[in-house]
TrEMBL record:
This is Uncharacterized protein. Residues 1-35, 111-139 are annotated as: Disordered. It comes from the Eukaryota. Residues 1-28 have a biased composition (Polar residues).
Length: 139
C-alpha cells in the first residue's frame, strides 16, 4: 500500500482501522479472516497474474489460426502445427480457468466485493498508463 491511501476496515463489524494488524471484533460477531499487509500483497500478485493471463488470452484465436493461414510444406506439417497450437491454446484457457476458480481467487473476489460495498467512495479506476510494468510477472 502506498502512503497517502486511507485505510479501510478489513473485517465486518469492525470499527476504525486495522492498526498494526490487530483487528478488533465487536462482541457477538463471527471472527472473519483478517487481511493483513502480507495477505493483501499476495492478493495483488494473484490479481496481476489473473490480469496477465486474461490479457494473453486475447491472442489465443489468432495464434490458433496462424498455422492455417501460413503455407506449410506438407499436410502432415500443417496438422502438426495446428495440433501444437490447439494444445497450447487449450492449456492456456485451462490454466486461466483454474486460476479464476481456485479457492484463493474466489476468496479474493468475495473480499473485494465486500470491501467495495462497505466503502464505495474513493476507488480510482486502474489505468495502464500509471503502471507501465503491469505485464512483468516479477515486479
Amino acid at each position: 500500500m502506498s502512503s497517502g491511501q486511507s485505510t479501510a476496515p478489513i473485517a465486518a463489524g469492525q470499527s476504525g482501522t486495522n492498526v498494526g494488524g490487530n483487528a478488533q471484533q465487536t462482541a457477538g460477531s463471527e471472527p472473519e479472516e483478517v487481511w493483513d499487509e502480507a495477505k493483501l500483497e499476495q492478493a495483488m500478485k494473484t490479481l496481476k497474474e489473473m490480469h496477465i493471463q486474461c490479457r494473453n488470452l486475447r491472442s489465443t484465436i489468432p495464434r490458433l489460426l496462424t498455422p492455417l493461414a501460413t503455407k506449410q510444406q506438407s499436410p502432415e506439417q500443417l496438422f502438426s502445427s495446428f495440433q501444437q497450437a490447439a494444445t497450447t491454446s487449450n492449456k492456456e484457457v485451462r490454466d486461466f480457468t483454474r486460476l479464476m476458480k481456485d479457492e484463493e481467487g474466489v476468496k479474493l473476489f468475495e473480499h473485494a466485493k465486500k470491501s467495495r460495498a462497505e466503502n464505495p467512495h474513493g476507488i480510482k479506476p486502474w489505468r495502464v498508463t500509471e503502471h507501465p510494468d503491469w505485464l512483468d510477472r516479477d515486479t
